[in-house]
């Protein structure tokens, strides 16, 4: 897992401004942070060989998409792809409802997310996955994304790693 900055009150405000208010300047800051991490990360292979990697955005629920008017992470992941030249595979979907994660303990978050994602019908998996999300607190969402990516009984993606804009320290 690779992140650009430590989660703080300022980072929280930027994420909320992007996620909930759709402010382009906030989106740009998160995109720049994730692009920076992708450019600096040692992801097991030479990142300059972009064909080996696929960006996989963490999906939003239908309710969140309706409320926000967009699929936040999917949208910024497409912009990240344009900047880096790494392809996007929007292959994950929310397959069941989950509770709001804020205020939940590590154990509650893991239980809340278990089985929450699945692969979209017809998804074709190749290369190594770089799961993109805004913030990591316990890792429950990213673990669930990795589980779903490998759910077909094969590891078609090879390795799965994650890149986020922010990381809570210590992980809760």
Describe this structure in words.
It is a single chain. With 172 residues, this protein is α/β, with parallel strands linked by helices. It has a single domain, classed as Rossmann fold. Helices cover 38% and strands 20% of the residues. The chain is built from 6 helices and 7 strands, in the order βααβααββαββαβ. The strands form 2 sheets. It has a 5-stranded parallel sheet, sandwiched between helices. Strands 4-5 form a two-stranded antiparallel sheet. α1 packs across α2 and α2 packs across α4. The longest helix is centred in the N-terminal third of the chain and has 17 residues. The radius of gyration is 15 Å and the shape is globular. It starts with a strand and ends in a 5-residue tail after the last strand. The mean pLDDT is 82.
Shape category: globular
Strand elements, count: 7
What does the average pLDDT come to?
82
Number of helices: 6
**What is the annotated CATH architecture?**
3-Layer(aba) Sandwich
Strand content: 15-25%
Provide the descriptors you would attach to this structure in a database record.
single chain; 172 residues; alpha/beta; Rossmann fold; five-stranded parallel β-sheet; two-stranded antiparallel sheet; 6 helices; 7 strands
């Amino acid at each position: 897992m690779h992140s650009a900055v430590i989660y703080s009150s300022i980072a929280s405000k930027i994420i909320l401004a992007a996620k909930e208010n759709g402010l382009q300047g906030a989106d740009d800051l998160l995109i720049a942070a994730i692009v920076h991490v992708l450019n600096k990360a040692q992801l097991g292979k030479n990142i300059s060989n972009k064909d080996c990697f696929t960006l996989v955005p963490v999906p939003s629920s239908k309710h969140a998409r309706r409320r926000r008017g967009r699929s936040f992470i999917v949208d910024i992941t497409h912009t990240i792809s344009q900047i880096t030249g790494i392809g996007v595979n929007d292959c994950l979907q929310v397959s069941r409802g989950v509770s709001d994660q804020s205020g939940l303990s590590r154990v509650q978050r893991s239980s809340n997310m278990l089985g929450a994602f699945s692969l979209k019908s017809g998804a074709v998996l190749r290369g190594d996955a770089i799961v993109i999300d805004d913030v990591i607190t316990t890792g429950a969402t990213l673990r669930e994304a990795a589980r779903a990516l490998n759910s077909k009984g094969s590891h078609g993606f090879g390795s799965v790693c994650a890149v986020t804009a922010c990381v809570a320290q210590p992980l809760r």
